[in-house]
Amino acid sequence: MRFFLILLWVSGSSPLLADLPLGISLAGDSGPYTIKRWKHDWPGCEFEGGIAQGRVAIVVHDALSWLRVNFAVGQIGPERGGAGWRMPFGRHEAAELSYTLRFSKDFDFVKGGKLPGLCGGPDNVSGGRRATGTNGFSARLMWRKEGRGEAYVYHKNQKGDYGDSFAFPADFRFPTETPVKVRIAVTMNAVGERDGTLRVWIDEKLLVERTDMEWRTMDSFGVDGLYFETFHGGGDASWAPTRACWAEFAEMKVGG
Questions:
Q1: Cβ–Cβ contacts within 10 Å for residue 148, how many?
Q2: pLDDT value at position 27?
Q3: Distance (Å, rounded) from C-alpha 41 to C-alpha 50?
Q4: Are 71 and 109 in contact (CB under 8 A)?
Q5: Average pLDDT score over residue span 134-147
Q6: By C-alpha distance, which of 96, 128, 72 is closest to 22?
Q7: CATH 3.40.50.1000: does it fit domain 20-255?
């Protein structure tokens, strides 16, 4: 059985970031997600996109508090179209992120977009910043056309500048309106070996399993961040949504 320690509150001070395991507590009523609330719930982040622009809200339903990201029509990327930040939680050799995900009715999947995952290393390795083995890694998920899915990974042996895609089974489709349970787990490799792992489950069904990952060529970093990003894209406007849509996230936890 897993136990998750929530971000602790000390009277008269800022919230303290607990070591793993941890959970993201979204306290409060439905309404806009302000910078103040974001800083309380996600301590230690060095950047954010989407909150200051008003695209993120708290929505309470089904006995849960959900973080809703409203995607901007005609826009791509976390700065203009969705939301994104990276929360550090200390260096670990293995970590597992879990959350509940729900897409809006008639969600506009277009060509694809990003979903939260895990990351590590000194740099923010994404957006065409190729992983070298020394600068870090990222392991996120993507939705694709018609609700297909994949793991989207920046790692030492990626084939191109924009990472590698490990597709979910051909018959998989993300549903709309119906929540799904997401889990993504990363184990770091031993230096000089391709023995790191990546596993992804949706509703407890294992969809991706890789046991040959080389995340790093030095042992100075491990899994150290929750990479919350969700947006359409893609590198041009052909990925942008043509109608209003949103994705919601609840019960976000990281275990060791």
A1: 18
A2: 79
A3: 15
A4: no
A5: 98
A6: 96
A7: no
How does strand 180-187 pair with strand 83-92? unpaired
Give the model's pLDDT for residue 28.
83
Contact 51, 38 (CB under 8 A): yes
Measured at the alpha carbon of residue 112, what is the angle toward residues 111 and 117, in degrees to the nearest 5? 170
Give the start-to-end residue ranges of the domains of the chain: 20-255
* CA separation for the pair 163, 227 (Å, rounded): 15
| Spatial distance between the Cα atoms of 237 and 122, rounded to a whole number of angstroms | 30
Question: pTM for this one?
Answer: 0.92
Asked whether residue 8 carries a pLDDT value surpassing 90, the answer given is: no
- The CA angle 147-73-165, to the nearest 5 degrees, is 35
Look-up: residue for tokens 């059985």?
Answer: 1
- Strand pairing report for 5-6 and 22-23: parallel
> What percent of the chain stands above pLDDT 70?
93
Which helix (H) or strand (E) element contains residue 90? strand 83-92
pLDDT band at 5 (very low <50, low <70, confident <90, very high): very low
Residues 6 or more apart from 39 whose CB is under 8 A from it?
45
Structure tokens at 93: 């050799």
Following CA atoms 74, 78, 82, 84 in sequence, which dihedral angle do they give, to the nearest 10 degrees? 180
Give CA–CA dist 25/250, Å, rounded.
9
